[in-house]
Here is the input.
Amino acid sequence: MTRSAAADVTPRTCAWPRCQVAVRADRLMCVPDWRRVPKPLRDAIWEHYRHGQTALTCTPEYREALRAVMTWARERQAEADAQAARAAELAALQEPLW
Here is the structure.
């Protein structure tokens, strides 16, 4: 196995905020989180993705596509966090008095 092939299978954590699922180094996210990303954003990533690129060697177009995906993911996670906080507050208000 070549060095680059070994790097592709070395696990790292999914890029979705708070997701701790291990993914291969050549993957951005775990499958369930990747499928949550809208197709136009996924397509932009694939359009500019080049195998073996790093943060230092990626194109500005790929970096912009990645920024758009991560901004979208952070916004969705913030919405989910706010909704969970509201649900917890409502549950606390609805506890029985006795």
Summary: The longest helix spans residues 60-93. Residues 3-93 form one domain. The longest strand covers residues 11-13. Residues 39 and 45 are 10 Å apart (CA to CA).
